[in-house]
Amino acid sequence: MNDFFIIQLLIPFFLIFWRFKKRRYFYVMAPLGIVGIIAALYGLNFAFALIASPYGWLCHYLASYVAVFVLANLLFEMDGIDKLFFCVVVFAIQNFAHHCCQLVTRSVFLITGTDMESYFWGAFGAYAVAYVVVYAAFWALILRNKVFELSVPHSKLATIFLAAAFVMVMIVLGVYVKHGRSAVLADPGIRLVYEVYSVILDVFILSMLISVFHNDKMRFDVDELERRLAQESRYYEMAQSNIELINIKCHDLKHQISMFQKLNDKAACSGEIEELKNAVMIYDNIAKTNNEALDCVLTEKMLFCSENKIQFTYIADGSLLKNMTYTDICALFGNALDNAIESVMKSADPQRRVMGMKVFGRAGLINIHFENYCPQPPKLNQGMPVTSKSDGKNHGFGMISIRYIVQKYRGTMNFEVVDDMFYLNISLPM
User: Fold this and answer.
1) What is the per-residue pLDDT across 136-157, written as a single tens digit (0 to 9) for each?
2) Is CATH 1.10.3210.10 the right assignment for the domain spanning 287-429?
3) Domain residue extents for the chain
4) Full-model pTM
């Protein structure tokens, strides 16, 4: 049996799994676990060698795959389905590297008549180069570019189906053809065709894995976005109730202060009365745009801007947004203004802490315009600005939710940075 097969699996295993949360005593358990499964497989191979081919080879490969899955459970804190998914990725990568090497050696044999595998160093060199190239390319193209990102729950049914498909197609069929019907592959041309076929199957399996991962990620992002939008909506609904209550109290208190001034006009009280009048001026900061959701968002942001010396001006016809839901209005304007506030707060100069907003209708479109001082151009990911906060996992959904809402209403959006000013323009059909 192939004593180096488990080593070929462990390299991509650690390339993929190293990024995940490790269990306690990982650095003690990892070497012990590796030595343990290598020793166990080495002992089992003696038993597998006694089993008639191809069944002995089938047991050898299956035992190695099970050992890798057990090692993943031993060393990393992940859901079982997630471990199975990434183990299938490991298996597919190893299988792809193996067949790429076979394709090269069989091509050399067919062209020159030199059988590299008949020489130890020839075979060792060919396999070493093939595995290094494939694993390095996998890291550079897939892992480095974060094609497989972290913390994405995987579809149980799709993962089990892919694992079963890999076992059936890549192992059972491969073992049966290669080890059970060796006479079929005695012809070099047929063997070369078989290796080409195997490489194509490997590419297909890897493409399926990436596709399934992207579908799971999109579903996860949409669910997370809907959850955050609902959370924002509940927050602004509570804020609106509080603002309405403050509105009523401040309105009544202004009249009481006026009556108190008329009854008690002593100079000693004038300072206290004036201070009290300034305290209830919050009533005059209540936004009035003919849209309750927009009023709630603007009022909250204006109060924050007032406390933090941010110059915030707006002109908005909220009646244009009558066809948008309360949740979508809160999410779109709340996230856009939060991004603007986050940007201007980076400036220590109050004169540069400026931001503005417009909502107006023109040519059958609802035009929404945001602008703010931007001392540092935002970082982009796939053409979208991303959060500057260190906790990217819990932040960074602002622009994604804005784009989601704009697309929901069949609108368009664009942004630009000109002379330290960030401009976000959104157009929605009326």
Assistant:
1) 888 887 777 665 665 566 677 7
2) no
3) 5-226, 287-429
4) 0.57
